[in-house]
Amino acid sequence: MEYIRVTKDNIDSEHICCAISNNRDVQVASKKAWLAERFDEGLVFLKSVERGKCFIEYIPAEMAWNPIEAPDYMYIDCLWVSGAFKGHGYSNDLLDACISDSRAQGKKGLCILSSARKKPFLADPKYLAHKGFTVCDEADNGIQLWYLPFADGAEKPAFRECARHPHADESGYVLYYTSQCPFNAKYVPLVEQTAREHDVPFKAIHIQGREEAQCAPTPITTYALFCDGAYLTNEQMNEARFLKLLSGKR
Q1: Mean pLDDT throughout 78-91?
Q2: Neighbours of 240 (CB within 10 A)
Q3: Cβ–Cβ < 8 Å for 79, 95
Q4: Which of 59, 78, 129, 184 has its CA at 20 to 30 Å from residue 240's CA atom?
Q5: Is 177 or 49 the better-scoring residue by pLDDT?
Q6: Beta strands 73-81 and 68-69: pairing type?
Q7: Residue 22: how many CA atoms within 13 Å on its side-chain side?
Q8: CA gap 14, 77 in Å, rounded
Q9: What is each CA distance from 163 to 40, 59, 93, 135, 156, in whole angstroms?
Q10: From CA 130, how far away is CA 127, in angstroms rounded?
Q11: Is 86 helix (H, G, I), strand (E, B) or coil?
């Protein structure tokens, strides 16, 4: 497999994520705009030359849009290999490239979000354990911070206090999200519309800056849905899934 690094110079012409190939799609435009602003902060987006879900995205942890304390670590936003790309060692290729780059930059190690059991849009804990990662912190909602130190005795990354006990201060449904995930550009407005049509209290909080993200009341900032203050899920909702959620709450 050949890989290519997306940069400011080629982002307009390269496909950048998932199965979305049309550059005019609002999801692609949103994601590319978010990426373009991160490259000068050290973000790396490495992907297969073929279209599809085969990429890794990482950034110095100090610049990550998550409430973590991980000085001199590299934070992996996303490592996603799926579909026909699975089973060929591409995850190893991408992770090895991240490790090599991080070592060359003098980083202490890597960190990434996961959970005890596989959750949608989070790294597979079985794969992480196989590659030598271990859990270094855990929030009340079961979201875990895993790390791979490059040397014995390296300081462990940790969640900020604001993320240890995920909550929303308002009643009804409250969604925290960023433009890091392209799906949000399409589905958040649809869920907002569905909530209005069914007279359901719903507030979407679009996190638009790193400092805001690093102070968020949730370890996951790409998508964190709450109901009456309690954390529900990090899985993106479409109209049908949201209506199913509502039916289970009534």
Answers
A1: 89
A2: 9
A3: yes
A4: 78
A5: 177
A6: unpaired
A7: 4
A8: 19
A9: 27, 20, 31, 16, 16
A10: 5
A11: coil
Residue 131 tokens read as 């590659």
- Which SS3 state, helix, strand or coil, does residue 247 take? helix
Beta strand 109-115 pairing with 73-81: parallel
48 vs 223: CA distance, rounded Å? 25
Give dist(CA 70, CA 2) in Å, integer: 31
CA distance 70 to 140: 19
Q: For residue 158, give the nearest of 45, 37, 70, 74 by alpha carbon.
A: 70
Does the pLDDT of residue 250 top 60, yes or no? no
Write down the residue that tokens 């290729």 correspond to: 93
Give the residue-averaged pLDDT of 190-208. 96
Q: 20 and 28 in contact (C-beta within 8 Å)?
A: yes
Over residues 57-78, the pLDDT tens digits come to 999 999 999 999 999 999 999 9
